[in-house]
Amino acid sequence: MGTPSKITSYFRRLKARMRKSGSATSSAPSSGLAKLAPGPSPQPPPGTACLPPAEPKPATLPSLQEKIWNQAYNDAASEEPKLVKRFKEIIFSELHPKGPSVESTDRVEDTEITDQNITSSQMLELLTNPITEALSNREGIQYVLGRTEWYWNLVSLLLDENKADEATVSLRDTMEKNITQLFQRLLVYQMRSACLYHRNAGATLVRDTFKIDNWPEQLGSIKEAEETVRRDMEQYNNQKIQKKFQTLNDTTFALHESLQSIFAVANDQAEYLRNIHEAVQDQTNQHGKNNEDEKNKQCLSDLYVTDPQDDKEIIEAKKGGLLKGSYQWVLEHKDFQRFRNEKDTRILWIKGDPGKGKTMLLCGMIDALALDQSTPLSYFFCQATGGDKLNSATSVLRGLIYYLARRNLQLVKYVREKHDYMGTKLFDSNAAWHQIRKIASAMLKDPSLENAILIVDALDECSVGRQDLLDFITETSSAKWIVSSRGWQDIEQHLGDTQQKVKIHLEMNQDSVSQAVEHYIQNKVDGMERKKRFGGEAKQAILEHLKKNSGGTFLWASLVCEELSKPHVQKRHILKQLQKFPAGLNPLYRRMLEDINQSEDKELYNDILARALVVYRPITLKELRVLIVDLGALEDEEIKEVINSCGSLLATHNDVVSFVHQSAKDYLLSEALGEIVPFGIEDQHQRILENASTHLQDIVRDARRFLLFNSRVIEIAPLQVYDSALIFSPTNSLIKKIFSHEEPDWIKTKPRVEATWDACLQTLEGHGGGVKSVVFSDDGQRLASGSEDNTVKIWDATSGACLQTLEGHDHYVFSVVFSKDGQRLASGCWDLTVKIWDATSGACLQTLEGHDDRVMSVVFSTDGQRLASGSRDKTIKIWDATSGACLQTLEGHYDDVTSVVFSSDGQRLASGSDDEKVKIWDATSGACLQTLEGHGNPVMSVVFSHDGQRLASGSWDKTIKIWDATSGACLQTLEGHYDDVTSVVFSIDGQRLVSGSKDNTVKIWDVTSGSDDETVKIWDVTSGAYLQTLEGHDDWVTSVAFSMDGQRLASGSDDKTVKIWDATSGACLQTLEGHDGDVTSVVFSIDGERLVSGSKDHTIKIWDATSGACLQTLEDHDAGVSSVAFSIDGQRLASGSDDKTVKIRDATSGACLHTLEGHDHAVRSYIYSLSDDEVWIMENGQRVLWLPPSYRPWDLAIADSRLALGTSSGRVAIMAFRSGD
């Protein structure tokens, strides 16, 4: 059935369901057509029968009705394609809420709408779900649904071909066209209604408001089409049709009565929908409010430059707390009272010299004024050492506005008027001051800020835009101001002539200030007495000296008390020390400098003072450590001790270093600059630049190492950069230190890693098999690798990105080499071929065939014209690298040729072989020039020195031999490796030789003396002295297991031993020897008293886990034992073996109780939680921690929340996870 028929079926079934549920909406026609209706039909109207919950597929529609309906649908689709497409989407979304798309269903005819159960509630949801709907549309849809039912049934009565005579055929055809047009209009009206009700409420409201759909006009169009049909029917009318019309009319009237009941239900639902509408409206309003709150928060966040309340708390803490007795006098001062009581007195200026306590006076005023809730209050503390955040006019106004707006969010609107469209540019542009000034002026006129008081401390420290700020203060008439400053001329000029100003000159109120200072001194000495515990006589002497010499200056008293309170000043020396402090701030600062100059750390103290003196803003301890090399190795607390020794000129708060007071910095700049900065400020800036640049370079280098080391995990799982990448990076990695707070807290005991980055820059992953050969291009920009996955990969040697994957070989690629110019790459393979590739495009240029066995080594001549290959067929072939022709076949070895190399001049060729010999050949003639004998095992690597005078060879006999390349004499035999030597290479100058070995080391040899002058730990992916490292095994660790209590750890190794470790300290408790083959599996008994080990020597040993004594040796497997395990109750022991059996034993006697056979392969045990590719640690089946290649274990054991990794390097590593995570 086509799509139109599906829609037809949908509407018919939809109406049937609505009738069944009492929700039918058809109505009898009100036109004269009813009079023409025939009598009742013997069949029930379509859709009136009760439908079962899962009705069968309905019968096919009458062909005539289907034809007309389909034509009406097609006409609608042609005239209004977008409407029909949208309607189809709605229909299918209703019938297939989680099913296929419209397009896919159209393509599958068996998937039909008629197979779905359509309920009345679904129709109500389709046509009455919207919260608001136009009344005219509701009335229209009722009319249209009734008419659709009417004319559907009318079609079979009027247009049945079997009931028409020849005289009426032409008229019937005309009427069919008119009925089709009527159906089309009915269908379009319903489609538009459905689309309307599936728009959002806002869109519906807009369309209804502007009458975009014009429902009355559409309904009128339907009625016009009805009128046309009616006229046609009147001409076509006969008695038989009239009787049928009458039947239909009766049915329609019955439906009309049912519809009245439905209307009652619909009205109830409409009320319900209105309630929903109100709820949604409330939710919309709340959403709007939340949105406004977010905008307000963002505006405040952008406005923020500092929180004055936080600054006040910091200042009070640095100055030892706010004492009421130190500021109470100013609250009682007549000028302060005048300022508070006289409306026209707008400005109160607190004027005084440095150290007189202006800032603390204002802190006291703020606390007192804050008690009056009717007085809006805001304040700002200027600080010359705080950078442009604390010393500019713009920042002052931003701070004042921020504090006001944060306390009264209604005021944010004055900022948002511009912020909503300017964003942060409002505060960052060159016109920021003018914008902020306008905002402040408008805000201060707000009725809620009537009688507001704005307080600005230390106007003299506002070094950027102070004149603008003073103009604003004097011109603003809508608020009162309290300001403090030194008596500087420019401030005096602005504030001195203001008629609405009062001034409290601290020097003119010396008695009050002195009393406040004495109160402060009393408090400080009381605290000192509690700490030093000196007697009453000493206390009195201290008080008298401080009061006499303070000169009414808070700062002087504070600095002296600070010096006397230091731990190194013993109480018996306090009075003597007190006499060293002269009266007055400047003499006191001079005295402090003299003490510094007499110190053993004079240079360090001067460096610290110099850096603090020339920087733009206060610096943190971390920054100071960077700017002064001598502090680099010190901890933060040690640096604080050093700063405290700088004569109390500097102070630290929240790890920020600053001058104890602006006057201290002013004194050094004016009176002691030559002492502190002997070579000038520019010299200090240069030193800062150099130290900072060095540190930045270190960060960049470390970041590069970090990215290279973790590039793979960053690529596949970026968020692991906060887990695996940080955890496994070295302790001293700068990136690790900077982001240490991001390390996961679910790892309770984090891995113990190496202190610094090792020699491994990056591990390149991507091959699907073992890598057999790697080589750099001559320019060092690329790296090629050949693998057991039959491919060659070309990598970017800087980034580690894979540039090319060369496919074409059918077996292991055992050797790769670049040509000198880097344009070509050769690969030798076990498929008996050599391939030459274009190293840029990856295209295969040549396939060289001729060897009868695996190709083991390939090498280009220096000029790139020839290529040599060595093979297991015991020959060397020299090829023309351009044509691919074989130029020479060199025969003479009696076993596999493992290595070939050209001399730098291309005249000679050397080869190493499993026959333990090295041969030197004439590369042109193919003649064997020398056969070098002396190795006792296969020769795996040969190389010429750069000058061609010497030849080095490495062998499985663990030695390197250096030969005279002309005479063939053995010049040196280098011994020191403990396993096979696999690779040798000369340095460019020929003075050193590097060798690689299976003993996991790279050795650098001085070939002039033959000594091993340096051993570098190899960065092989199987090694890693990381985590908590348990060292002691001499070969791969194959199995690890915790005791049940987690206190001990057992490890088995290919070195044929079992070790028992203390899992907390890492100490080796026992080394159990006795196996004659690799130990493959270890396990503790449940009670921890015994330990069982399985070995490739076919035996199982049961050990006393405390004494280490071997209690039993079980020897009944016919092959290596691969796994052992205890039962839960500890009564039985199971062992799996490569003999394809599992044996179950009595755990006490060792007797075999059962032998289970039937395995097709050797039995293995997987007791650890690793991903299948052994790259991830899994938790509950989820990947949680990526393991770098050097940490991937040979075996893993888990006990409770602890995990042990056994690696192929012979080390055991332990980590612990937080329980329950």
From TrEMBL:
Residues of the signal peptide: none
Annotated stretches, region: Disordered: 18-60
Nucleus is among the record's keywords: no
Residue ranges constituting the NACHT domain according to the UniProt record: 346-486
GO cellular component labels: nucleus; transferase complex
Ranges occupied by WD repeats: 764-805, 806-847, 848-889, 890-931, 932-973, 974-1015, 1030-1071, 1072-1113, 1114-1155
InterPro entries in the record: NACHT_N (IPR031359), NACHT_NTPase (IPR007111), NPHP3-like_N (IPR056884), P-loop_NTPase (IPR027417), Quinoprotein_ADH-like_sf (IPR011047), WD40/YVTN_repeat-like_dom_sf (IPR015943), WD40_PAC1 (IPR020472), WD40_repeat_CS (IPR019775)
Pfam family, one: NACHT_N
Keywords: Coiled coil, Repeat, WD repeat
Biased composition (Low complexity): 21-32
Family: Belongs to the WD repeat MDV1/CAF4 family.
Entry function: Involved in mitochondrial fission. Acts as an adapter protein required to form mitochondrial fission complexes. Formation of these complexes is required to promote constriction and fission of the mitochondrial compartment at a late step in mitochondrial division.
Protein name: Mitochondrial division protein 1
Gene encoding the protein: HET-E1_34
